Amino acid sequence: MRRGQLDDAETWFKRAIELYHKAQDVLAEGNSLDSLGDLCMRRDQLDDAETLFKHAIELYHKAQSILSEANGLWSLGDLHMQQEQLDEAETSFKRAIELYRQAQNLGGEGTAARLYRNCKCNGLKVSLALHENRICLPCRRNKETG
User: Fold this and answer.
1) Measured distance CA(108)–CA(99) in Å, rounded
2) Confidence class of residue 19 from pLDDT cuts 50, 70 and 90?
3) pTM given for the model
């Protein structure tokens, strides 16, 4: 996307957030906040993205949307990975996994695929080690020893 398109998207997301808030559509407001957070990440406005993701997660929790809350936590974990805040990323990912499992147990569809999503950190690709219910971060070892 070009800068002008990002600016337009930001304007429309902010307008949507305002309208959904007035209509008391908590889930739609959360989705718009999450999308605006993604846009902020693309612009490297990481503090703004974190605030937006956290607000979206609160709204998803309020709306009792387990899958949306898990997706929001996953976005927050991605953000923390980008910021190299590995402990915070691990916390977000672990909580997301718990919620994905709950959603799966409730008949949620397509959640397993999200668990295998890859992230980038320090130029290395890492993935979730589900069998251990923790993040397998080769880069963490490099960071601790380097």
Assistant:
1) 10
2) very high
3) 0.73
